[in-house]
Design a protein that fits this description.
The structure is a homodimer.
Chain A: H1 31-45, H2 48-51, E1 57-59, E2 65-73, E3 79-80, E4 83-84, H3 85-99, E5 103-114, H4 119-136, E6 139-148, E7 156-166, E8 182-185, H5 191-201, H6 217-227, E9 231-235, H7 241-253, E10 256-260, H8 268-277, E11 291-294, H9 296-308, E12 316-322, E13 329-332, E14 338-340
Parallel strand pairs in A: 5-6, 10-13
Antiparallel strand pairs in A: 2-7, 3-4, 5-7, 8-11, 8-12, 9-11, 10-12, 13-14
Chain lengths: 353, 353
């Protein structure tokens, strides 16, 4: 993805001012701030709630419980194969809502920009955010921009927060996993982390490893339609990968988990990149995959629904919840031995999202 | 305010690990991340929704329209007379909801921490956030922490997003200001900006200038109770000060505004600091003041309700909306002349909130 100027989402006159980059004044609440809002954010994210420009946006929500989520994004580099910090920020929060069983509705966006950050890069990020939001059927209803001096940021940090409505009767969560649940994953693991790391480390493969960043709301809706209340827990395995998400679920629900290591879907180029860097794909971040704990009677329908969806074509059964070794994730290795998959202390890959 | 360790809000065992400061792993989604959550954030912000530790928190809201708001905070220094980035971040988002006529309910918190940031400072910030949230009657229901390498941040950046419920029949907003509306301000202006600037510039006065950071929800509730639908528009004049907020209201509603410059309440020490630094208090940020546009028949009741409240004791009538010079803010000066108060291009004071 090139960083050429891409100003289709600007309206006049902001690009006509003689600032090729962000200046402190863009975060000052004066004319420069309002130009950024009026000529970049409003045209890109257009909707009525945003256009009112109040300190808060007022929206209507259907009756029901609300899911609320927040995530900050500090990924480096800002642009990587398959995506950028912009779509990552939208998809990440949409997915956090979706795995909670919610239909995502509204997002807020907070930028912390570094003085000198090119307006053309900001325009491109905003463009990708608007496309991702459109794709996920969510509206960006309010936002905020702050600017810090050169040397106190890294170009662009983004916070997205989101709300969604949890339909009546839906009750999924990490604590609801039960012994005997079948563990499913929606596709190959480690793609996002290795896409970012290949750029950072300058690794070249015959194929380009692309981030899997995607909004999972529609896939998850199909899974819920197929499995109903048999879908107990879901998680999108981002930072810390499948291993961390499974450990969190094991800890919250008190089940043990036995993984079948051979069943974990990994792209050969991702495996090769992991081997070179000395990493295990089970700890590498995903940005468009979901893990699901489903009761055994419904697992095959849910798996079938996943495989029919473009984002779930490589869905697989990867393990089982058990009622021994509570809170522990174990894997049966390819040679038939067992090993514990612990939660890591820190992380293998800093600033992956 | 000292930056001495202040660990009343920690539970074991996090402070016992040998990290005096934040390390990259605290943002990695592994054990260090969960220790931060379990031993600092959960005890400080304790509530049921947060304790579930899902990717999203599920909450109930009373029926009605929702107000949604987001704000990132990059203030320097992090601790200043009268407050710190923590209470500022909570009060700022609470106030954005309150001026929209909403009753604030839930907050999300996103931290971007710099490697090496002292855990004791983080503990103190979180403590102040919890106190401010308790004060405003809001719950912090979900959060996120990212860590960036040394030299890519400034200790601590915070995003807060919030939702509140807008009671039936309430309809206030910057576009609702009407000609003849009386313009009220709840107290002295410029306190926050000058508190921060005095620290940055090393200014010393006989009295200590303290930030006015405060949650305005209760004051605003009293104003709405006194004025009802006669309260047309409100705004908390933060970045860019009273001048910017009035310009925004004039622009959205199409009224003109005439200010009585003598009527603007300014503390003598704030005025002195502004004079030294060559600033006009009308452009200086406030973090605990509200501007209100109220129809003339209700203005005195609203003023009286404000003055009865501890945060509105110095409330004053400072001007009038008029149906000429649409979109323009003008001031009658002390010597009887008129001057236009324009929106500034950038800002006088970078990183004030």
């Amino acid at each position: 993805m090139s960083e050429q100027p891409h100003l289709s989402n600007w309206s006049c006159p902001l690009p006509l001012r003689d600032y090729p980059g962000i200046v402190l004044g863009h975060g000052g609440g004066g004319k420069l701030s309002s130009e950024l809002v009026e000529h970049l954010f409003l045209p890109a994210f257009k909707n009525e709630a945003l256009a009112n420009l109040g300190d808060a946006s007022v929206v209507s929500v259907p009756p029901g419980r609300l899911a609320i989520s927040t995530d900050s994004f500090v990924v480096q580099p800002l642009f990587f194969p398959g995506g950028c910090i912009g779509d990552l920020a939208v998809n990440g929060t949409v997915n956090d809502l979706a795995v909670g069983g919610a239909r995502p509705l509204y997002l807020t966006v907070g930028f912390i920009l570094e003085e000198g950050f090119p307006l053309s890069s900001l325009a491109m990020i905003v463009d990708r955010m608007a496309a991702a939001a459109g794709n996920a059927g969510v509206q960006v209803v309010t936002g905020d921009t702050k600017v810090v001096e050169r040397g106190h940021g890294d170009g662009c940090y983004i916070n997205t927060s989101g709300i969604g409505v949890v339909p009546h009767g839906v009750d999924v969560g990490p604590a609801k996993a039960s012994p005997d649940d079948v563990v499913l994953v929606s596709g190959t693991i480690g793609d996002h982390g290795m896409a970012v790391m290949s750029v950072r480390e300058g690794l070249q493969f015959e194929t380009l490893i692309e981030s899997d960043t995607a909004s999972l709301h529609d896939l998850i809706e199909q899974m819920m339609a197929a499995g109903g209340s048999a879908v107990h827990a879901m998680r999108d395995p981002t930072r810390g990968g499948v291993a961390s998400s499974l450990n969190e679920i094991a800890k919250s629900s008190g089940v043990g988990i036995v993984l079948d290591e051979k069943a974990l879907p990994v792209r050969p180029d991702v495996q090769a990149a992991c081997d070179i860097l000395g990493m295990d794909p089970i700890y590498v971040a995903n940005e468009g995959k979901v893990l699901a704990f489903v009761s055994p009677d419904a697992a095959s329908q849910v798996l079938e629904a996943m495989r029919k969806h473009p984002l779930g074509m490589n869905a697989s059964i990867i393990g089982r919840a058990v009622n021994h070794h509570a809170g522990i994730v174990a894997a049966r290795t390819a040679i038939g031995a067992s090993r514990v998959i612990p939660m890591q202390i820190g992380e293998q890959l800093p600033r992956i999202c």
